[in-house]
Amino acid sequence: MTFKIYTRKGDDGKTGLIGGDRVAKHHIRVESYGTVDELNSHIGVVRSLVAGTIEENILAHIQNNLFTVGSYLASSPHSKMQLPEFDESSIEDIEQEIDRLSEQLPELRNFILPGASTQGAHCHVARCVCRRAERLVVHLSDIEEIEPFIIKFLNRLSDYLFTLSRFLDQTNGGKEIIWVPSTSKK
């Protein structure tokens, strides 16, 4: 028998959560884990661009953690299913990486614009998606109980992606593009 990717169960505009509950595909919970999935895809692009480096291994670990975060977000509040372990040690790992990369970077004195390198620009896209995921999860937490470390993880991950973008810009010979505010008034 051939496995089919389609089930037709979502044709009514609803999807199933882990635990069996069905919700609208526009439900804030679905928006939250869908955006985490989108983030994971963007990080996959960055990971492919840094193949063979320590950053590739770190991003692989982050992608696995994001999949776990997605499973927590995709779980019905009533689910009894055992989810993968995830705790604040993952946040500490990210903080250590931010510190490691920051030691190799000049002090940040200005706002910077994306675009000094392709790799760095992709990190900025991932950072923006991460911030959107964080906002959605915060909104979800106003409505339903979620694990608090998920918000912390996403917050720290966006900081890491910003720092990684600067590191990759520097590694690839790109000079940071400083934001120059307009001085003319209309």
Highest CATH level, the class of one domain: Mainly Alpha
How would you spell out the order of helices and strands?
A: EEHHHEHHE
Unreliable stretches (pLDDT < 50, length at least 5) are none
CATH 2nd-level architecture of one domain: Up-down Bundle
Tally of DSSP β-strands? 4
* Spatial strand order of the main sheet: 1-2
Under CATH, the homologous superfamily of one domain reads Cobalamin adenosyltransferase-like
Q: CATH topology of one domain, which one?
A: Hypothetical Protein Ta1238, Chain: A
Distance between the termini: 68 Å
Question: Layout of helices and strands, plus pairs?
Answer:
Layout lengths: L13 E3 L5 E3 L3 H22 L4 H20 L15 H14 L9 E2 L4 H26 L4 H24 L5 E2 L8
Antiparallel strand pairs: 1-2, 3-4
Helix pairs in contact: 1-2, 1-4, 3-5, 4-5
Report on the structure:
The protein has 186 residues and is mainly alpha-helical. It has a domain at 26-75 and 88-106 and 118-177: Hypothetical Protein Ta1238, Chain: A (Up-down Bundle). The chain has helices spanning 28-49, 54-73, 89-102, 118-143, 148-171; strands at residues 14-16, 22-24, 112-113, 177-178. A two-stranded antiparallel sheet has the order 1-2. Strands 3-4 form a two-stranded antiparallel ribbon. The chain is globular and about 55 Å long. The termini are far apart. The mean pLDDT is 91.
